[in-house]
Design brief:
With 171 residues, this protein is of the alpha/beta class. Helix content is 56%, strand content 18%. The protein has helices at residues 12-24, 35-45, 61-69, 85-94, 106-157, and strands at residues 4-8, 28-32, 49-53, 76-80, 98-101, 158-160, 167-169. Helix 2 (35-45) packs parallel to helix 3 (61-69). The longest helix has 52 residues, at 106-157.
């Protein structure tokens, strides 16, 4: 099943250009023209990655990130014309995973998308494996606890054979 990318940008030309390119590369694409709509679409589409403009009406990218981060850890790449280093730093500090300046090269965009999706997939596999191991550890700990409890009761019932000095158990 193709990965879903949400493009949130108030510029229809950018949305269309990026959407067409991502569809050509095999992605499923959802779009939103402002931050509020992006929240709604993200909640329903459950995208694998979000391409987010900073300067949008109603709710900008900086407002979107903390709201959505309360609900999801979906990777976010900021797409913006803001050149100041402080803008980049703020976006990353709020929870964006990457930052790409407009105008951008389509190949670079797709490379960044692919890289982040691969990293996210790898982290999800590690998380799943960790959960499996945690579950197995709980099972083993429970079995060990049961064994220790049974061992304690066996020791109480043990009788030392005076001739051999060995334990004899009465069951």
């Amino acid at each position: 099943m193709p990965k879903t990318i949400l493009i949130a940008d108030d510029n229809a030309n950018v949305r269309t250009l990026v959407k067409d390119y991502l569809i050509e590369k095999g992605y499923r694409v959802a779009t939103a023209e402002n931050g509020r709509e992006a929240i709604f679409v993200a909640r329903h589409e459950k995208p694998d990655l979000i391409l987010l403009d900073i300067m949008m009406p109603e709710m900008d990218g900086y407002e979107f990130i903390p709201v959505y981060r309360k609900e999801s850890d979906t990777p976010i790449i900021l797409l913006t014309a803001k050149l100041e280093e402080s803008d980049k730093v703020l976006g990353l500090e709020l929870g964006a995973d990457d930052y790409l300046l407009k105008p951008f090269n389509s190949k670079e965009l797709v490379t960044r998308v692919n890289t982040i999706l691969k990293r996210t997939e790898m982290l999800q596999k590690v998380k799943k494996k960790n959960e499996e191991l945690t579950s197995k550890n709980k099972y083993i700990n429970q079995k060990l606890k049961t064994f220790i409890e049974q061992s304690k009761s066996i020791d109480k019932e043990a009788i030392i054979d005076p001739d051999t000095g060995l334990y004899k158990y009465s069951f």
